[in-house]
Amino acid sequence: MEFDKFRTMHFPRDVFVGHGVIENVGGVVSRNLRSGSVAVITGNTTYSMAGRTVAELIESSGFDVHVHITGEANTENLNMAEEFCREVGAGMVIGVGGGTKIDLAKKAAYELDLPFVSVPTSPSHDGIASPRASIKRSGCNLSEEAAMPVAIIADTSIMVKAPYRYLAAGAADVISNETAILDWKLANRLHGEDFSTSAAALSQYAARELIEKAHLIMPGVEESVWLVMKQILASGTAMAIASSSRPASGSEHLIAHSLEMLGAGNSIHGEQCAIGSVVSMYLHGGRWEELAETYRKIRLSIRAKDYNISDITMIKALSTAHRIRPERYTILGERDLSYSAAERALEITGII
Ligand SMILES: NC(=O)C1=CN([C@@H]2O[C@H](COP(=O)(O)OP(=O)(O)OC[C@H]3O[C@@H](n4cnc5c(N)ncnc54)[C@H](OP(=O)(O)O)[C@@H]3O)[C@@H](O)[C@H]2O)C=CC1
Ligand SMILES: O=C(CO)COP(=O)(O)O
Ligand SMILES: [Zn+2]
């Protein structure tokens, strides 16, 4: 019998995590830059937190470096980042910042076929170590294929300075893998969707580690950033194995995306995923109370009103979330949840 299964996976060749690892940036450039200059994509705040240091370290290693300061991850800023890389003759793109700067750099590098290096300054979600980028297109921010970092330099002494809320959100993004895996298994059982045992095991391991160690996730503690960052890396690797966000994105992410489109108040990605995972676990008939308790331990609210999300918006977001990515089957099914069923699920779980 002929064996015609194949899959291509891309992994980083260097991963540096911990105190002061930013010092490794010069070495990373010399190992990965074949020709041209280095383009550093960063933000206003993150330039002073880390972007400037990255540029100085690269320059003092003898390379030509150019800095581009940008804003949110939308198509306009992506086009400008690509244009900048072309103008400066970039042979490598380095993203220094939170999720938005990493995604712009990652997608620009992918479009220009250049090596990409991720220097996250905030542990806000697992996209900082994955081959996926979320570029806002027509109000939607589903992740899309992008460059896998050739190197990740996650300096915990910089990341601990980001507001604690981002650390809790990053942890929640990984913890919410619990429901993503249940959804993936369901899609495999009901529709024969391809399932990777290794990607699922890694993704679930990352979530379980953070659930078991939630009491150690605290504001202002570098060790907590280390703990979460390790599992962000594991979750990103699971997505690299699957060449898809499937191991880390199921119904809870559909609810998060649905909220983004309908009005997510002042919530950020990981907080939306936390809310989504609790109600989704309830719909799966699983231990949603364990998830709710874990989020309480890491000081992350799952109450919609704490983010200025109205009950009506929350109910509508849950009820219609399945429409967002119809090809990715989840517990939300293929029809809108009835208003009363969605309302009941959200009331029982304490979200509204
Ligand atoms: N690729 C993927 O798979 C995923 C991507 N996303 C996307 O990621 C984005 C959200 O990322 P997120 O990190 O929350 O948002 P931002 O990149 O906007 O960062 C949030 C804020 O934190 C600041 N900041 C970052 N690091 C530090 C630090 N060390 N100290 C002080 N301030 C800091 C940033 O400054 P500055 O102004 O300099 O940027 C910014 O003002 C969204 O676009 C979302 O769609 C979400 C999930 C998955
Ligand atoms: O946020 C992600 C994984 O945590 C990416 O998920 P999406 O592909 O649903 O955008
Ligand atoms: Zn996510």
Automatic annotation (TrEMBL):
This is Glycerol-1-phosphate dehydrogenase [NAD(P)+]. It comes from Thermogymnomonas acidicola. Keywords: Cytoplasm, Lipid biosynthesis, Lipid metabolism, Metal-binding, NAD, NADP, Oxidoreductase, Phospholipid biosynthesis, Phospholipid metabolism, Zinc. GO terms for biological process: glycerophospholipid metabolic process; phospholipid biosynthetic process. Zn(2+) binds at D173, H253, H269. The keyword Hydrolase does not apply. GO terms for cellular component: cytoplasm. Pathway: Membrane lipid metabolism; glycerophospholipid metabolism. Catalyzes the NAD(P)H-dependent reduction of dihydroxyacetonephosphate (DHAP or glycerone phosphate) to glycerol 1-phosphate (G1P). The G1P thus generated is used as the glycerophosphate backbone of phospholipids in the cellular membranes of Archaea. The keyword Transcription regulation does not apply. It catalyses: sn-glycerol 1-phosphate + NAD(+) = dihydroxyacetone phosphate + NADH + H(+); sn-glycerol 1-phosphate + NADP(+) = dihydroxyacetone phosphate + NADPH + H(+). Binds 1 zinc ion per subunit. Its cofactor is Zn(2+). NAD(+) binds at G99, T100, K101, I102, D103, T121, S122, P123, S124, S130. Substrate binds at D126, D173, H257.
